[in-house]
């Protein structure tokens, strides 16, 4: 079914900050779609604040909540001139990603927006543990906003997996395309597809006992690349994407996807996420994290149909 955006939930970590990229992007989407907007912030209730009793800590949390509510309402009041259908809510909850998921379920949001922050030490955009927890658990599409400028043209790049590797269901590609088309309709641009595959490698023992990678015979490598390309073009065509807009790359996704996104001037990369065991997540999570951190454009993360968050 088409990805229709009628309710936007924007997570606001600090309402006292006047400039919030997620809020700007949310208003931009709402203006194009007519969706309503809810600003949401949570106050952590961990049971202890320093050397005070549990009752005092709860009272302190309620005081923080009242202060956060006033700040969020002030933000709403400023934005209501631009977006009349805007509301705000604050909840006592912990941890932050669970609070956001519970509010998304309660509000029946169609999309959740969060802001990626710049890390001062490395001067690049990095995602926090809360962000990655939301990627795993958010039951609705999650838009991680990295850019502040309004979208004017550009591309929406859908990262597909024609071989459905790592346990990804075929239906996830369909959900990715639906979400990507929804963004094209609301933010403009052209729909493109992408797939990055690892070149064939055969390992032999090196002279010091470590693995060595000898070059494969050229015909074998070409057959593998041609087979991958045919499959990718077939899958893209299934979703109405012309071969000229289907981009196949060989190499490291953490390098190739950001490079491709820059070359296309993509404003958003749409990718899929599936739940996995903790062990498998540790093994394959590093590549996903490097891709997400390396991208300079926004990232929309979609879940397969039937996904159920473990958070209630």
Shape: elongated
**Averaged pLDDT:** 85
In DSSP terms (H or I, runs of 4 or more residues), the helix count works out at: 8
Q: Tell me the span between the first and last alpha carbons.
A: 25 Å
* Overall number of strands: 14
State the CATH topology: Rossmann fold
CATH architecture: 3-Layer(aba) Sandwich
How many structural domains are formed by the residues? 1
Assign a percent range to the helix content: 40-55%
Note the run of SSEs as H and E.
EHEHEHEEEHEEHEEEHEHEHE
Which regions are unreliable across 5 or more consecutive residues at pLDDT < 50? 120-124, 277-285
- Rg (CA only): 22 Å
* % residues in beta strands: 15-25%
Can you walk through the features of this model?
It is a single chain. The strands form three sheets. This protein has a ten-stranded mixed beta sheet with strand order 3-2-1-4-7-14-13-8-9-12, with helices on both faces. The protein has a two-stranded antiparallel ribbon with strand order 5-6. A two-stranded antiparallel ribbon has the order 10-11. It has one domain (7-302): Rossmann fold (3-Layer(aba) Sandwich), CATH 3.40.50.12370. Helix 1 (21-33) crosses helix 5 (170-187) and helix 3 runs parallel beside helix 4. The chain is built from eight helices and 14 strands. Mean pLDDT is 85; it is low at 120-124 and 277-285. The longest helix has 26 residues, at 54-79. Helices cover 41% and strands 22% of the residues. The chain is α/β, with parallel strands linked by helices and 312 residues long. The two termini are 25 Å apart.
């Amino acid at each position: 079914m088409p990805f229709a955006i009628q309710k936007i939930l924007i997570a606001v970590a600090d309402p006292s900050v006047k400039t919030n990229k997620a809020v700007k992007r949310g208003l931009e989407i709402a203006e194009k779609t007519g969706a309503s907007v809810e600003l949401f912030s949570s106050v952590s209730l961990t049971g202890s604040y320093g050397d005070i009793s549990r009752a005092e800590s709860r009272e302190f949390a309620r005081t923080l909540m009242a202060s956060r509510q006033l700040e969020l309402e002030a933000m709403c009041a400023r934005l209501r001139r631009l977006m009349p259908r805007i509301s705000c809510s604050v909840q006592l909850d912990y941890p932050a990603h669970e609070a956001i998921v519970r509010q998304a379920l309660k509000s029946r949001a169609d999309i959740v927006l969060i802001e990626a922050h710049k890390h001062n030490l490395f001067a690049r955009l990095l995602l926090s543990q809360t962000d990655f927890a939301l990627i795993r658990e958010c039951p609705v599409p999650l838009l991680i906003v990295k850019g502040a400028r309004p979208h004017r043209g550009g591309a929406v790049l859908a990262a597909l997996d024609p071989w459905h590797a790592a346990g990804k269901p075929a239906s996830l590609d369909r959900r990715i395309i639906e979400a990507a088309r929804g963004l094209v309709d609301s933010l403009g641009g052209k729909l493109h597809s992408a797939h990055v595959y690892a070149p064939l490698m055969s390992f032999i023992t090196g002279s010091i006992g470590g693995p060595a990678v000898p070059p494969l015979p050229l015909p074998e490598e070409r057959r593998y690349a041609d087979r991958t390309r045919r499959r990718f073009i077939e899958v893209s065509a299934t979703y109405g994407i012309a071969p000229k807009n289907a981009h196949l790359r060989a190499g490291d996704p953490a390098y190739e996807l950001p490079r491709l996104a820059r070359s296309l001037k993509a404003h958003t990369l749409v990718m899929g996420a599936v739940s996995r065991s903790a062990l498998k997540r540790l093994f394959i999570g590093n590549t996903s994290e490097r891709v997400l951190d390396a991208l300079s454009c926004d990232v929309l993360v979609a879940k397969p149909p039937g996904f159920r968050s473990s958070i209630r």
